[in-house]
Fold these 3 entries.
Entry 1:
Amino acid sequence: MKRSYFCVGLIVWFASLVIAFSYGRSKMSSTTSVYDTARPKHAKALDHLNDLNDPETALEGDSAAMTEAVETLSAFFEGAEMTLSEAINQVDRLSADEARNFLVEAFALPSADPRRSRLINNLLEQLAKSHPQEAYDLTRSIGSLRDAERAKVAILEVWANRDPVAALAWSKTALADEPRHLYSSQMRALFRGYAEMNPQAALTAAQALPVGSKEEIRMRTQLMGEVIETQVREGQIQQATLAIEWIDDPDVRQSMNLELVDEWARFDPTGAATYVESLSEEATTRIKISLVDEWAESDPAAAAAWLSGLDAEDPAVARAASDLIREWTRYDLTASAEWLNSLPASPELDRAVANYTFRAAQEDPANAMSWAESVSNDRMRNRLMESVAGSWKSEDPAAFEQYLESAELTAEQKEQLLNAENRGYGGGRSPFGRR
């Protein structure tokens, strides 16, 4: 009985995939985005994609160019003086037969040759444009499991970019026995390639996936997230936000917003912050933390200013402060300390204080010790103080002894600090890193 339900589910999903592909393709042809207009290079990319879909253009190309490519790669394998990049630049001009011939040569290279993996990967990608299953099967000859997996991911992305319906239909049986991690990475590659060509159809297809178990729900969410991330990387932010608005399930919508903000904030944190503010109550703590984490890597002061503008009771403030301080102290100990000191003291800030303390221990151990003493959690406070003491007494024993004499500590506490070892966390190597 279960098997019949499963088969029916596959048939329904595949039918929805075909419908989604047709619908998404028609939507793409009738919709123009301001982001696409602002990025003419994507129009050129789409023209190139259309050229690739023409078998004569894709497989044979200009005969003179193909002859040049064959001559260049032949010279490379014969040991002529040229770089790997020069040879690889010719790969996309090869026909399927030429790609096969040069794959034989590439597989014959010694495994220790650092050029082998990259060259094989590029040749397999070229073959995948016309014969994806053959290219996928050839990955068994690579030898290295890591390199083989990378090649499979590249091949599947190419295949789904050119013929997503066939690629996803193939995946239902061909990937069924893959280990969970490998299955996940290859399915993400398929949907990434699909999204590059037709994001609307890719998102619809992902939403239509069966969700009978927690693992299937998790996989569907991952694949939908892959589509959203691809749209953002391609500059199709407006389309991505509109697509998310149409998602009915609030949990899925929340996950997609998290993926959107995380990717968007990498290159435009200000724009991502404006979007987060527009979400109002749907802007969860995780989304705010993700925004600040990415923002802190490029402009920690601006990220701190935005975080300070939130309600003081917002749990995102203290939780995001930890990673923000870890990044900010790499560049400016003074400004980061002033900002941290401006926040209302709370046990939730202990992790942020710990990150600051570890970073400051090498440059200003006296100040670092003061921060360590302010931690509310007893165990963390003792650990921090011992860590600072260990590095302080090895760098400046006289100053450390002076501190012990004046510190309001018990004899037992002073003894612990005196015997503390340098654990090597100085210079910012905090154990309280990114979550």
Entry 2:
Amino acid sequence: MAARKKKVAKVVNMSGKRKTAIARATVRKGAGRVRINHKPIHIMEPELARRKALEPVQIAEAMNRLADVDVVVDVQGGGQMGQVDAIRTAIARGLVHYNGGAEGIDEELRDEYLRFDRSLLVNDPRRKEAKHQMGRGARKKWQKSYR
């Protein structure tokens, strides 16, 4: 009795981070849909955030890399624009790795993303500075007067 080989569907999981927001993207074979927290990306509000989140999608569409894949993104933590930056990083990384084939990375798509904006593929390391003693925040100090 011959053993049957299961055909494994290619699935890529990638993440993106910005401040305290974390986005996890799953890219798999599909019909070109992009969903964020179970909602289509095209109904995301406000419009500025939607436009920013759609940048990696539009670049991939222009290069015919999005027609046969579905992208599902789960994002949590942080504020609205931090989440948007994390979303676009996760989507871009996922598409680069999904379309890479045997070598793992789609060089042409990666170069196009880097040419457009480096933060599409690289997390932003900046974080909030912690509050220090003797003050109300990271830099402001309580005033003192000796006279």
Entry 3:
Amino acid sequence: MYQIDFEKPCKVHFIGIGGISMSGLAEILLSEGFQVSGSDMKDSELCQHLRQAGAQVQIGQRAENIQDPDLVVYTAAIHPDNPEFQAAKGKGLPMLSRAELLGELMKNYKEAVNVAGTHGKTTTTSMIAEILMKGEKDPTVTVGGILDSIGGNIRIGGSGCFVAEACEYTNSFLSFFPTISVILNVEADHLDFFKDIDDIRESFRKFILRLPQNEKGFLVFNGDIREPEYFLRDLACDVVTFGKAGNCDYQAEDISFDGFARPSYTLVVKGERLGTVKLGVTGEHNVYNSLAAIAVAQRLGVPFETIRSALEAYHGTERRFERKGECGGFTVIDDYAHHPQEIEATIRTARRCPHKKLWVVFQPHTYSRTKALLPEFAEALSGADEIILADIFAAREKNTVGISSGDLAERIAEKGVPVHYLPDFDTIEKFILEHVKPGDLLITMGAGNVVEIGNRLVSR
């Protein structure tokens, strides 16, 4: 394993530097005096930002881009036949995956906070970051979304605390070295990689065991996860739980919502009522994300009043129930939800907002996920009044499983919910303008580029 030595900055090349996580890591290295180069398939604001910060970024991936760096970093999306990957291998250069580099960086911090779970990682990571910044802990943060308070997806702080999302896909988080880990939920997802839910649960168990198994390790665990004893058995680190279950250490009582679906609740820690918490973000699911964030912040010594103030001031990251604006008298919201549980939570939140009719424009993300969770997607989406389906966003996949959005439309129609399968964005936009009425609420939903529809509508 190649060791990162911050005392001896070197030359690092990133294959796929324009990704939101890769760009963040590149920026951290730039701040430490490393010479950074990289390539991506298309230009972007993140690539331009890195150039301004001093990186050499090429568009297009070619063997000649590998100019004998000391280390090459690549993402999980890079295939062995990639010309830069092959060139680096051919030259015998040291190589690390993105996850391995992130894990190596964590070793340089006293506290490394990792936020894991099938969903909720970006929001909870952002909540923790907001609290620690307000508590003057000066964290370094890498987050999978754009957070306004740090002006992007990365914050360079001191060497005391590192806060990062920990993704289970391809077992990436098994390369990390956390001192504090959060487990938000463990659900079936990424079934193009994992065999089944038991395989996923085993991966999360291995991740938990990466914590120091002594008083230096701290686990924040959702006590509502099925069979928690499977994950918590034989642990020697400190453990606290949060959730709805009556035996959880961190609980929310007296939950209520304002007219914009923003919750308030009484925080109860190990039976003690600490006071009221008001959130600046919407939805009951964020109550439980905030409980996890509070547990981390208290572990790091942030006073409750500071925590409470930070959570009320935090208004979310881009693409998390983000109000885009209005078009023709109806409101347009955008949300990143791409898993059935996320969709259900988003629709439940929307139901609490003022509206006449709730429309959802959903773009499924990856063929394998759509195929594996087809009944669950149909059930979750049926909570809307009317649904518009775009074609599946392929991402890293090819359609080898014979699935389309038409199959999902059939499942939804069987439930008696109006559904329209309209493959291209132009047709969808025209349909919306003809059918969505003033006072309605429309959500563009998915992890692909469906956000473009909402942007086009509000730009009118």
